[in-house]
Amino acid sequence: MILQSKSAVVTGSTSGIGLAIARALAAEGANVLINGFGKPEDIEKERAGIETEFGVKAIYSAADMTKPAEIATMIADAEKAFGAVDVLVNNAGIQFVSPIEDFPIDKWDQIIAINLSAAFHAIRAAVPGMKARGWGRIISTASAHSLVASPFKSAYVAAKHGIAGLTKTAALELATHGVTVNCISPGYVWTPLVENQIPATMASRGLTRDQVINDVLLEAQPTKEFVTPEEVAAIAVFLCSPAAKQMTGANLSVDGGWTAE
């Protein structure tokens, strides 16, 4: 129970990696704010389930990650409900696949806003409280695409490279304040985000569904296996542990060997 009496905000946590991280932090004793879109009844089921299963307080924020004011309010609401935001996990993300010359401008703006700018706005809002208490853990979900590129994903790759740079900068600024800042870079994780981009990849490359899974997605990962949300969540928990006290500014690859090549 390394996070007993601590509280966490996890963006993009109504499903997939974010939900796995929120549940893993709650299992370690943290109160959690979950955030994201979905059917109200599904979100409430997950929120209530966290409280029941782990005996912590769980609240939900519908904050839109494209709106800085709503992000700031989300952090303030968590501080009011829990007394503090000790752990911030920037996980919200979307994807769009298109040749760069056809890439819709509104999709570029949306991806940069949700995948990159939202992390800045959340960090900006959470840091004063962390500095005042002399303890904090900021973790962002980056991607193997924070280190390498793939075609047809210009906005996503740009945003994830940005997350890696933001992580390093914030880590240096907060190094003497008891606050660590790190990012986790998974390869392909079997989540709705990955599953939903398969049809666009099929269309852009003229491939079947099986070809996209085996020849595009898993082709990148030497292990030929998808990463699981729970594996990413376990690393997030580790980064909150005393053992990771001196880990800051790091970009941790969890990609089945993808970026080793």
TrEMBL record:
Pfam families in alphabetical order: adh_short_C2
Family, similarity comment: Belongs to the short-chain dehydrogenases/reductases (SDR) family.
Annotated source species: Phenylobacterium glaciei
A GO molecular-function descriptor: D-xylose 1-dehydrogenase (NAD+) activity
One biological process term in Gene Ontology: monocarboxylic acid metabolic process
Enzyme class: oxidoreductase
Domain of life: Bacteria
Annotated keywords: Oxidoreductase
Record's protein name: D-xylose 1-dehydrogenase
Its EC number(s): 1.1.1.175
Database matches in NCBIfam families: PHB_DH, PRK12429.1
Membrane-crossing segments per the record: none
